[in-house]
Each structure stands twice: as C-alpha cells, then as structure tokens.
Amino acid sequence: VSDQKPLGCWSVKHGQIITCPVVCNFETREYIAVHDDKVLRIWKNQDINLDKVFKATLSADVYRIHSLPNGGPVVLFKGGGVRTLDVLLEAPQQEIENIISDEVIKWSEACMEGQQPVLIFTTEKDGDFFVYVQKLKMNSLHKYKLEQQELSKPLSFTAYLKNQIITLLCLYSNDSVYKVLIPLQQNSEEEEQILSKSLLLKLSVSASVLKGTSFVVLDKDHIAVLGSLAASGEESKECLTIWNTKFQTLQTSKELPLGTSGQLWCYEEKFFFTHGKVLTVMMYKCETSSLAAAVGKLKDSQTPDVSSFVNWNTLADEELVVSFQSQQSVALKPESKMTLRSKRNTVAKVQPDTLSVGQILLNLKDASTTVFEEELRQLMSKAQMPDFQASIGCVITALMKRCKTNPKYYPRNFLLHIVQTRDLSYSLCPDLMAVALEKKDVHLLQICLQRFPDIPEEITYACLKVFLSISEAYLQRIDVNLESVICYIDVEFNNKEVKTEIVENGFNAELEQDIWDTKITKETHPTADGELCPVGPQKAALLNAVLQSAYSEAFLLPHLKNLPAQQAILFLRYLYYLYVKCSEKINTALPGTRSPTISQIMDWMCLLLDAHFTVMVMLPEAKELLSNLHKFVRAQVRFYSELNKIEGSLQELQRRNHQKDSQTYSIEVLELI
Questions:
Q1: With DSSP H G I counted as helix, E B as strand and the rest as coil, what are the percentages for the chain, rounded to 5?
Q2: What is the edge-to-edge ordering of all strands in the sheet holding 104-113?
Q3: Distance (Å, whole) CA 133 – CA 150
Q4: 196, exposed or middle or buried, with CB in 10 Å at 0-12, 13-18, 19+?
Q5: For residue 109, what are the β-bridge partners?
Q6: What letters, b where the CB count within 10 A reaches 16 and e where it falls short, cover 335-361?
Q7: Which of 99-113, 308-322, 595-609 has the lowest mean pLDDT?
Q8: What is the largest CA-CA distance in the chain?
Q9: 484-510: per-residue pLDDT in tens?
C-alpha cells in the first residue's frame, strides 16, 4: 500500500463468485479463498492461474475465514461450526455440525488468549441477537442473548480480548455505542445467558448527530466511527470521526465528499477506507487521554489547524497538518494570531523538549524565513524525537506550504539536504516532487527518483517529460549527479570523440553482414558519426533515474501515451543507445554505479513502443531508428539461437572438465556437430 504498487492479481472463472474475504496464512505465506460458498482455494505468490492451485470442496457453506498470526487460519461455517484449517484439510468432506439452526450470522472475529484461539460471532433471529464464544482447543462453546434495546438494533460490532474478559462494542441504530463485558472463564452450564449492556457513547455533538455505519477501537479511550454527520435542516455529509469515550467528546472529524463504502479498517495505527474510487490510508496516533485535551478539541473543533490524531493531508493539503505528537502530550488548543505574533521573536527561547512537533510548526507559521529554517534544522537534529520519520514528513509539508504561500521562497539546498540524508518516501511528503516539478528543480527530482520507493506513475511521467523538454544548454549549468553515466557515455569534447572500450558480445557487424546480409549500424543518431549518445550526460543521468524508478505498466502506459512524439523518439534513441552499449559487454551490464540494467532498458523500450508505435511508424524521422532497432534485435535473436544449438556440446565440455585429472597433461579435441 505504501508503494501504491499492485503485487499480484488472481481471478476465478466466469460464473464463479468469491464469497468471503481472502486471507493470508501467516505461517505458510499462502492465500486462502472460498468461492461459491464451498470451494476452498489455496495458493502462493508465484502461482498465476487459480484453476491450477490447490482445491478442496467442503461439505458445508463457509461464512468467514479468520487468520491468526500464531494460531493459524480458523474457518467459521454458516451453520456455526468451527474448524482449524489443518483439521479441515485432513478430511474436506467431513460433516460440519449445525449449531445455530435458523439464526443468521451477522459478524465474527477471532483473537488469541495466550496459545488459545478464541472465536466470537453474533447471530440474529426474529429481531433477537445472540453472541457465541468458542474456544477451539478446549472445544467449549458458550451462547448468550443480547439484551434488547427498544426501537433500535445493532448495526455493527467490534470486540477485543484482555485479561480473560471479552469487551464487545455494539453500534446501534439509535446513534449510540454500547459496551458488553463477557468473561472468558464460565463455570455456569446454562444454555443461554442474557448479556446486559451499558451506554458507552452518544454520537452527537451540539445539534449534529452521526449516523454511523462502521467503527473500530483505537485504544481504551478512543474509537473511530465512519458515517453520515447530519445537523437539523442540513444535508448529511459522510465523515470519519474520532471520539473520546472517557469524556464523551468528539475529538476530530473530516468530511469525505467523494463518499465511502461504509467500511472502515484499522491496522498498525493506520486507517483504511474507500474514498470515491480509491483506497485511502491515513496514519493516526492516539495521545494520552486528558480532560484538557478533550475539552480543548471540542471547543475548537471548527478550527482544524492542528490534528494530533490523524494526518488529514492524505485527503487535502490546504491545512497545516501535524499528525504525530508525543505520547505524553495533550491536544494543542490553537492560539490566536496575536499570540503567535508575540511569540515570533521569542520562538527560539522556547524549550524544544517541552513542545511537540505540531506546536513547534504552528509557532513557526508566521516566523521569518531565517528563523523558520534555523528552527527546522534544530528540530531535525533531534535524533530521539518520537516518530522521527513522520515528523520529518511534517517538516517538509510545512516547507511546501510556505513555498505555495510565497512563490519567491524555495529552499533548494535545504530540501536537497533533507532528501539526501533522511530515509523518506513520497507518501510522507507528497507535495515535495510537485513543487520541484513546478520549479523545474531537476537535481532534486533526480534524487527523489533514486531514493523514494513509492512514486506514483503520474509523477514519474511528469519527471520524464520535464527531463526530455529541458534544453542541453540549460542542463550544462545545473548540478546533476553523473555517477550513472560517467563510465560508459560517449560524448564529443573539444572536437574529440571519447569512447569506451568495446568488447563484442559474441559477434561483430561485419560477420553479421556476411552471414545474415544484415547491416548492423551502431549509429543511434542519424546525423552523427560513430557511437555518440543522442543526449548530453546531464540529461542521460536524469533519464537513468526514471528508468530505475519502480512502476506498474498498467498505471504508467496511459500517461506515457501523452508524451509528445518528438520527445518519445528522442527517448527511444537513448534507450536504443543503452541497449547497444549493454550488448557490447560480455555480462550485458553497463559499468558504473546506479546504471540501468538491460532488463530495465528493454522494459521501457517495449513500454514506449506500445504507447507510440502507430505514431512512430507514421513519422519519417523515426523510420531509420525503428529499422535499426529491428535489425539489431533480429541479429541478437539469431546469435542466441546459434548459441542454443551448441548448448549441449558446451555442457558436455563442462562435464569433462570436472572429470579431468588436474595433475596430468593432455590435449583433447572436441568436434562440435
């Protein structure tokens, strides 16, 4: 998710339906899916076709599979029966008992109590709701009836297990969250016990009421609720909200104008939910619950300059966002502009250890450029700062906000220093490359392409377009890292041609011309003699950074089709030049550091031809280039075909060399047929 790259995709046959969420077996690194209710499929990453992977048809319909990190997968059937995956695979057609008769399962969750897997699920029948708790190793099952609530019913559930007590939270249709406590150790043998519930939270603030659809527990004092917030007389708006259950307050909220599916997930301090047509991931950090934090947040909920919980920057960048504060800090109450102005000249006197990152950035909002940069340098020098990487991301976000506010301000050297010395990613500072593209800061873009693992394809394409459009004369005045090209590129310098050593990769042009009647030209630029690179070393180094960046072909191809034809031809000339250079070497690798591999070169060449082949065929200036490329590739295919013919003889020669006595001298003649 952080790299925004699809790692795998599998599909069932037409007419088949995946009927429960796919899970990963943490122990075997396998995926487990169920389609058409009863057909179990298990496969690994390297498997491509689901028809050829493990298949087992079960005797009963599956409701859900739960995968536990230390307990293995657990299968819950629609009739209430439970099996571990290992037991189920021993006899897939084993009979599964029907426990719940006419009840319908509404929700389920699995957790670990020590080494004991525990499964909790709720059912509904004729308006009554029931809770089942099953301990798998002890094969014990307890059934409870949920206390009824007049004129409302539960919409969503979540639960967690701590100190032998299951805490079940229920989101009801009356805009309230109730808490139910279920002791794990039960001595009573009663078939059905009634569970009483207590009101945990009322989802209303002022005149607004939240109609929740799903929710998750963040810690003992906070929950996140996804739903529609409606005020009297106003249209409801979908929102993600965070509530303090201890003080009954709305901590923070964010409107989601593109709509959601109503589902919310939480994993490792990140929210996952759909917003429009994309999956949105938001980091959050819970602060220590205190009355000052709760009241302060509630009072100033309409001024979201600082959110100590969630990095709303994932959705919009208009706000100063501070998403990570110290675990021991309280929520910061935004101060008036007058107070901030009075602190402008004394900001350096504030003890940094007593302030969170959010407070420091907020205090610096109106500081002078000199004070602003100096304070940020001091802030980044604190190696023990909590959530260091995320805090650096917030620092860059603050810098980018100032760049947008003041177009004349652009701390190029400061930004270069941060990117070169910190392990950052695009997702931590998404505005950085956008501003660099606007400023045409090609050196910073080059460093970002080399260091960021998660650059979106749209940004990669934008960098490529900028690199190809900038003139060579301008680039010669720019500081660019040339380490990826300095060892192989051929350029004209003082009217002299500088060439690298050429080692033929098993063939030469004259031999190929004689045998195949194919003229192999090493001329990548139609107007140049010899093996000159079609671009200068600075532009070549920038293009190499693009070639080595991660991408997904499906996402990059639509953008690449928009590349102007002349730029596409120039890029293809350079790729052809690199391809010829790689083929000259015995190991088909370019010398130097950070040089693109032959696989990367060929992948980009194929991608570029897929995007522009029709246009290139129609352009006269591309005709010779395509012809040369075709001839060169054809010659290589024939050469490797000839090598394949003598593969058996070469293997025999290698086998004989291993068997030969190294202490004796002999001359052996082998005839290759």
A1: 35, 25, 40
A2: 104-113, 116-125, 128-135, 140-146, 193-195
A3: 25
A4: exposed
A5: 120
A6: eeeeebeebeeebeeeebeebbbbbbb
A7: 308-322
A8: 101
A9: 888 877 554 333 333 433 333 433 444
